[in-house]
Amino acid sequence: FPGIVRPELDYGDLFASMKKVIGLRGLQPHPWFIEKVIQLYEMIVVRHGLMLVGPTGGGKTCNVTVLQETLGDLKKQKKQGFAYEKCLIYQLNPKSITMGQMYGAFDPNTREWQDGIMSTMYRLASMSPTSDRKWIVFNGPVDAIWTE
């Protein structure tokens, strides 16, 4: 939008809590890593689903867990901000199981449907009576079949 200047956002509480969490996890508060956590936070503000992609050992899982613990810490401190809530993570590696185990499958012998791990995780998350945020995380190599 021409002529529109993006307002500066105050991440003071978020930065302070994040640096505390980074220290507690034995990580280094490198500016690049902090920027990536902030970018992930900004993405969850505007998106319902997203994908973190990068090489093995690149810090994706640390990014998610630092943000999870930071948001939970801010909730404990009763700070006000978007998504300052305790976050529960339901995680699986989709490459470690078959497609039927992940999505569910119809058994032609018994003519019964067997729920998959993914549908069970979604059900557990949606039926939870808490106001905690629920993140379903597929932590593993990206595959064109399961991403569809």
Report what the structure shows.
- With 148 residues, the protein is α+β, with helices and mostly antiparallel strands.
- Helix content is 45%, strand content 14%.
- It has 6 helices and 4 strands, in the order H-H-H-E-H-E-E-H-E-H.
- The protein has helices at 12-24, 31-46, 60-76, 99-103, 117-127, 144-147; strands spanning 87-92, 104-107, 112-115, 133-138.
- It has a two-stranded parallel sheet with strand order 1-4.
- Strand 2 and strand 3 (112-115) form a beta hairpin.
- It is elongated, with a radius of gyration of 18 Å.
- The two termini are 33 Å apart.
Quick overview of this protein structure:
The chain has helices at 12-24, 31-46, 60-76, 99-103, 117-127, 144-147; strands at residues 87-92, 104-107, 112-115, 133-138. It is of the alpha+beta class and 148 residues long.
> How many runs of DSSP E, i.e. beta strands?
4
Q: What helical percentage do the residues reach?
A: 40-55%
Distance between the termini: 33 Å
The largest sheet is: 2 strands, parallel
SSE order in H/E notation?
HHHEHEEHEH
